[in-house]
Amino acid sequence: DVIKSCRQAGIRVVMVTGDQALTARNIGERLGLLDDGQGADYGGEAEAVVHGSDLKDPEALSDERRRQLIRTPIFARVSPRQKLDLITMHQRNGAIVAMTGDGVNDAPALKKADIGVAMGQRGTQVAREAADIILKDDSFRTILVAVEQGRAIFENIRRFILFMLSGNVGQMMIVAAAILAGAPLPLLPLQILYLNMIGDVFPALALSVCEGDPNNMRRPPRSAAESILTRGHWIAIAGYGTVFTVAVLGAFAVALLVFEMDQGAAVTVSFLTLAFARLWHVFNMRERGAGIFSNTVTRNPWIWGALGLCAGLLLLGVYLPGLSDVLKMTPPTFRAWALIIGASLIPLLAGQIWLSLPRHTKPEAAG
């Protein structure tokens, strides 16, 4: 049921037609526009169908009448001018309005709406030129699919940026903390470049093609004023950066002071700790409330391919003659590898614990 799916996604569907009121009501009932009843879905004050002759100048309407019209699901015998007035009324009420149309008379409303959607098969040339989007199959269901894909793309962009920023902020915090503490640098410039080439390309690109969260269309739309990264995301970036810093500098200190490694071997430990921590960090990009082992990230085959490729490139950086000399890395011992793997899992464990905590706000990816 398309109308029911729209309601679940927080999308209100309003029919505005030039047909007679009886015809409009009959079509609306068949589509399910009135299935929930006026009292439940439209506040109990709205009429099921409003005739165009009852639509006055919007500036002359009382606040109560304007609220009633905003809740009304069907408008019949409406003129092109009245369509513009209805769009303006909903926009002033804070709604993002998408208008569908196919005729010449629909062109002004298609232009006025935030998103003009014209019919590609039976729509006129004028309507198609005035619209922002053209439906090639003239199916309303296609609009719903487009909304679902749009939400998935937005979340993927958010994941991509969150993953990149949290990893790079962690790198900066690691180097800055070491400098402020007067300790040897745990990362060398060429190592940072090599890590950026690996961690900022393959896993990040794989995140950008995740499938949408199945619950995306069961949530209300986000605010139009909401930025890509909210306050919660910036807090998460700072938190992840701090955990990266603690894990890497902790491994570096253990290598130097406990295992009594030389500085070159200790730097290799800190580099590999950060590198693998950033790889595991990709699993912290799941949606809050999603399963730990089954979510949009773990179900993405590109993620697993990227992790395998990056792990192979890291091992080449350690064991391939020539490349390891350029990067100034030495093959770790068994206990050094144990330290690397253990410390690199700390950000993953911290992120999974954070994402598993109950929240009273709407779910966010890694937020």
Structure description:
- This protein has 367 residues and is mainly α.
- It has 15 helices and six strands.
- It is elongated and about 90 Å long.
- Helix 4 (63-71) links the parallel strand 2 (49-51) and strand 3.
Quick description:
With 367 residues, the chain is mainly α. The protein is 57% helix and 5% strand.
Keywords, separated by commas or semicolons:
three-stranded parallel β-sheet, about 375 residues, mainly alpha, 6 strands, 15 helices
Content-based structural category: mainly alpha
C-alpha end-to-end distance? 32 Å
Return the average pLDDT rounded to an integer. Answer: 89
Strand order of the largest sheet: 1-3-2
Number of strands: 6
Q: How much helix is in the residues?
A: 55-70%
Which segments are poorly predicted (pLDDT under 50) over 5 or more consecutive residues? Answer: 37-44, 360-367
Strand content: 5-15%
The major β-sheet equals: 3 strands, parallel
Mind telling me the C-alpha Rg?
28 Å
Please tally the helical runs, counting DSSP H or I stretches of 4 or more residues. 15
Shape assignment: elongated
The secondary-structure element order is HEHHEHEHEHEHEHHHHHHHH
Blueprint (SSEs and pairs):
Layout: H1 2-8, E1 15-16, H2 21-31, H3 37-41, E2 49-51, H4 63-71, E3 74-76, H5 80-92, E4 98-101, H6 107-112, E5 115-119, H7 125-130, E6 133-135, H8 140-181, H9 189-199, H10 202-207, H11 231-258, H12 263-280, H13 301-319, H14 323-327, H15 334-356
Parallel strand pairs: 1-3, 2-3, 4-5, 5-6
